[in-house]
Design a protein that fits this description.
2 domains; mainly beta; two-stranded parallel sheet
Length: about 130
């Protein structure tokens, strides 16, 4: 089981058995994961996280995104799992070879949206 230093702010990992990772560091700001397994549940994201970069499909879904998340860079997200609501602080979304089945924000609200070979299936909701 990996033991992370309490003040760790940047974590980049490859293939990891997430069943052996009870929690991410509470001060983590950037989390990059390459080669995600399709049958694992990621640990809950800390509230300090502002950048999530992932290359790999998560058929069990990704955790609820923290409210302060500003950047989501996702490659290969499975089409059948849905997507948690995007946090209000989000500024940049980069999607590559993936699709979302539902999104609770209109595309016009994003400051920077980059899509490459993406199928976006959006149900657009008006914000009050």
């Amino acid at each position: 089981m990996p033991i992370f230093p309490a003040g760790l702010r940047y974590l980049s990992v490859g293939w990891v058995d997430w069943n052996a990772v009870p929690a991410l560091p509470s001060m983590l700001e950037t989390f990059k994961i390459i080669g995600a397994s399709t049958d694992v549940l990621l640990p809950v994201f800390p509230n300090s996280l502002w950048s999530f970069i992932a290359d790999g499909a998560f058929t069990n879904g990704i955790p609820q995104l923290p409210s302060g998340l500003r950047q989501l860079d996702q490659t290969g997200l499975s089409t059948d799992i849905g997507q948690p609501a995007f946090p209000s602080a989000i500024e940049t979304i980069a999607l590559n070879d993936c699709s979302f089945t539902e999104c609770h924000r209109s595309l016009k609200d994003f400051r920077n949206l980059s899509c490459t070979t993406v199928v976006l299936v959006y149900r657009l909701y008006q914000r009050p």
